[in-house]
Amino acid sequence: MKSIITTVAGEITEVLSKVKEEEAIDLSQQLKRAKRIFVYGEGRSGLMGKAFAMRLMHGGFPVYVIGETITPSMDEGDLLIAISGSGSTGAIVQFASKAKEIGASVFLVTTNRESKLASISDGIMSIPAATKFRRADEPETIQPLGNQFDQSIHLVLDAVIIGTLEDGNTNETMAKRHANIE
User: Fold this and answer.
1) Has this prediction a pTM greater than 0.70?
2) Counting Cβ atoms within 10 Å, is residue 65 exposed (0-12), middle (13-18) or buried (19+)?
3) Longest C-alpha distance within the chain, in Å?
């Protein structure tokens, strides 16, 4: 078991070392400019998106997860963070297209710069990880399906939040926004 844990950690370290800093900075700047932030992904990527949205909320951002009952309508000046390893997930393409029609910006977190979603996005952060498709340009992994992508986006998006919240958002400030009915 220890060798599996070590291998997984090494794989993630390798992926994270290849994420382009300028793309992470672009996402950070778009978060700061957005009137409101909407997050969407499917499956495990969607779960990572919800974790990202939670931390954004703790950081004081007006953020919503698409598909939740309390999510308001999107408007011009809003930002959709679309998370899709393939960049071609049908529902995400549909939501991103609608967001663009409304006048919102779309930022894609993906492995695929050449995808349909990439072509309509205002910004892209490429995570060079393996997905369930195992395309020729994806790294080798011992992990099944999109584990490597999902683990990597969780860590990268947490790092983006840390970098974005440099002005006065301490652990104490964020803790005040943390759920207290537990």
Assistant:
1) yes
2) buried
3) 50
